[in-house]
Write a structure and sequence with these properties.
Layout lengths: L1 H37 L15 H10 L2 H19 L2 H24 L4 H24 L8 H22 L10
Helix pairs in contact: 1-2, 1-3, 2-3, 2-6, 3-4, 4-5, 5-6
């Protein structure tokens, strides 16, 4: 009887700890999303952003798991879309997040890529997902001329995000949100 009570108590504490970490990760990703709206970066190309909130998503992928990173990204996309963007931004962001987390999960699982390599692939696939949605929205493949610029931007931002997550590794413990 005592063991069951101890196990239930540990489960409640773990659930509370996991919820606190998840809330902190979500809040941090929303803060990064907001800060990005304040940075007047214009590359002359619509839609290219630094993707600062993806630092939190990649960190969550490595330190919490794929499911947690996916839920975090979708919640961030919805909340930041309503707070700082619009309905179209939500669709584009979710498409990018789904495709990037899918490829990052596969590459991470394979184990032969660094965090930066996985993040670069995530940046590229994020832009591919968004480009596919744009093609559906405008009902034309002609927008694919934009692909080289978007893929290059995805590689650059993915590398920056991956390097930042590698720097954060010493402060994070695996499984904190599990």
């Amino acid at each position: 009887m005592m063991q069951l009570q101890d196990r239930e108590e540990r489960h409640r504490k773990d659930w509370g700890r996991q919820s606190a970490y998840f809330g902190m990760f979500l809040a941090l990703s929303l803060i990064f999303s907001y800060l990005e709206t304040l940075i007047p970066i214009s590359f002359g190309i619509p839609g290219i952003k630094l993707g600062l909130a993806n630092v939190v998503t990649v960190a969550a992928l490595y330190y919490a798991g794929t499911k947690e990173a996916l839920v975090l990204a979708i919640l961030r996309n919805i909340l930041s879309g309503f707070l700082f963007g619009n309905l179209f931004a939500i669709f584009y962001s979710i498409a990018g997040s789904l495709s990037s987390i899918f490829i990052m999960h596969l590459l991470k699982k394979r184990g032969s890529f660094s965090v930066t390599g996985v993040s670069i692939a995530g940046g590229v696939f994020h832009n591919i997902g968004q480009l596919l949605v744009a093609m559906v929205v405008v009902e034309s493949f002609s927008i694919s001329y934009y692909a080289p610029v978007l893929l290059t931007a995805g590689m650059i931002t993915g590398a920056v995000i991956g390097l930042l997550v590698q720097k954060l590794q010493r402060y994070l413990k695996k499984g904190q949100m599990r």
